[in-house]
Amino acid sequence: MSTDPLLRLSGVSKYYGKHCALENITFDVHAGQVVGLMGHNGAGKSTCLKASLGLIQAGGSIELLGLEPLKNRSKLLESVAYISDISVLPDWATTNQLMAYMNAIHPSFDEDRLIRMLKLSNVPLNNRIKTFSKGMVTQLYLALILSIDCRLLVLDEPTLGLDVLMKSRFYQYLTNHYDLNTGGIIISSHQVEELEDFLTHVVILQDGHIILKADIDTLFKRFKQVKIQQDTYSDVKKQCPSAIIVQYHPKGRCSIILDSDDESTYAAFGQLSQPKLRDIFIYLIKQNGQTDTGALI
User: Fold this and answer.
1) Is residue 212 part of a domain?
2) How large is the angle between the packed helices 134-146 and 164-177, nearest 10 degrees?
3) What is the pLDDT of residues 234-259, one digit of tens each?
């Protein structure tokens, strides 16, 4: 496996007038990695992906498969697949017609892979797309893109419009059929909880800045979660300033997350547990964006 990154961003910034969409963004995506690009709405996730693909111009340096994407978009389409958060397919076409079209125009399209994937769905082959439900259109759109044999898969909110079962099947298909030995995936989503078991690395954005980048194992070793009584939070905060409430529970209890690898500093607060990725995300956004007083938000 090559050690060269599939995607490298170095000091990437993007402004719209005086508004900062991205500021000094730096990270890599390597083969074998599934990188989650996470952040609140407007954090810069889609802007970052579009700049990475050469769809918009940005400052700094971007290398996609060793090439500058703005100057090599046509060539890169042979080895990069992109699923955006807007799925648009011609409503007059049938699934079979779109399959034939993709087979004719894309050298890396795998028709057998598409057929295998559609067998897991309820998408018909001979009906026109205008008769499909929103979920069926989204399923077909995803299947067409995922049937391109690519080295980097770029997913921008890929499961919008899918129900819980289809989301599970989507990630199952990626896990079982996408070759991470030679390829990598970068995926943006605000559905943090559905990505936890899928990611190898995370990059978290807030207001156009990276507030954390780490591999999943390191991330989960760094943070701990404890349940306490809400009325003891101010005392806990004095002893461990990193403590922030991320969940509220019945009977006046709450869950706090602490950022420390020294368990002796907070073991006395209660039984330690492993936080979910969603709770770590909430912790980091609150830590970097607002003062935590223990009040409900």
Assistant:
1) no
2) 10
3) 988 888 888 899 999 999 999 999 88
Q: Are 73 and 53 in contact (CB under 8 A)?
A: yes
Half-sphere exposure of 33 (CA within 13 A, CB side): 24
295 occurs within a structural domain: no
Lowest average pLDDT, out of 23-27, 44-48, 94-98, 187-191, goes to: 187-191
CATH of the domain at 272: 3.30.70
Task: Compute the distance between CA of residue 35 and CA of residue 37 in angstroms, rounded to an integer.
Answer: 6
List Cα–Cα distances, 148 to 19, 45, 220, in angstroms: 36, 23, 33
pTM of the model: 0.87
The answer, yes or no, to whether residue 86 has pLDDT greater than 60, is no
Q: Identify the domain containing residue 272 by its residue range.
A: 219-289
- Residue-wise DSSP of 170-197: HHHHHHHHS-TTT-EEEEEES-GGGTTT
121, β-bridge pairs: none
Percent of the chain with pLDDT over 90: 54
* Long-range pairs, 102-107, Cβ under 8 A, ≥24: 102/144, 102/147, 102/148, 106/77, 106/78, 106/148, 107/78
1 within some domain: no
Which residue do the tokens 């059929």 mark?
177
Co-location of 201 and 230 in the same domain: no
Cα 281 to Cα 91: distance, rounded to the nearest angstrom: 39
| End-of-domain residue from the set 153, 176, 207 | 207
Report the alpha-carbon distance of residue 52 to residue 188 in Å, rounded: 13
